[in-house]
Amino acid sequence: MASNEIGMMRAALATFAAACSLLAGAVADSAQRKIDLIQHDGAPRGSVIVIGKDELNLYVRNQIAGTFRQSIRGARLDLGYSRATGSAYVDFPKLRQAMGKPMGWLMSWLLAGERRVEVEAHIRSGAGRAVVDLDRVEVSGLSISGGALDYFIRNFVLPYYPDAAIGRPFRLAHNVERLEVRPTEVRVVVAK
Question: What sign results for the dihedral spanned by CA atoms 32, 37, 41, 44?
Answer without folding.
Answer: negative
